[in-house]
Amino acid sequence: MVGLEETISMPLVVTEQGTIRIKGSRVNLDSIIHHFKLGATAEQIVQSFPSLSLCDVYSSIAYYRTHRQEIEEYLKEQETAADAVQEQLESNPDYQAEIAELRSRILGRWTAAQENGNEAAME
To answer: Would you say residue 33 has pLDDT above 80?
Structure first.
């Protein structure tokens, strides 16, 4: 008779910042769960994150499904922290000035590209 091992090694690690990532990658658990909730299969998730193995993705999904309440709380904390950083950035006048300057440069390049495209089409 075959004996079964009761534990499976999880490919997850908690960083110093409190983010859960897949060992050996920069992919966080949040990304995997987000794709999973949108209906992506493990195979599709691996296509989105080629640094991950199929086993890592299946194990991460299994961990989420087994510890759903804890991971949902973690995801809410991550979202709250991200919202706070976004709010802090958006309220910074220096950031606002940088964004305005960046938009102006992008618009200038787009306008120049349009003009060049129209000139080339007329030739």
So the answer is: yes
pTM over 0.85: no
What is d(CA 53, CA 11) in angstroms, rounded to the nearest whole number? 10
| Sign of CA pseudo-dihedral 92, 97, 102, 104 | positive
| String of DSSP letters for the chain | -----S-----EEE-TTS-EEETTSS-BHHHHHHHHHTT--HHHHHHH-TTS-HHHHHHHHHHHHHTHHHHHHHHHHHHHHHHHHHHHHHT-HHHHHHHHHHHHHHHHHHHHHHHHHHHHHH-
Cβ atoms of 95 and 89 closer than 8 Å? yes
Q: Which residue has the higher pLDDT, 119 or 11?
A: 11
Confidence category of residue 10, pLDDT binned at 50, 70, 90? confident
**Cα dihedral 11, 15, 20, 26 sign:** negative
β-bridge partners, 12: 22
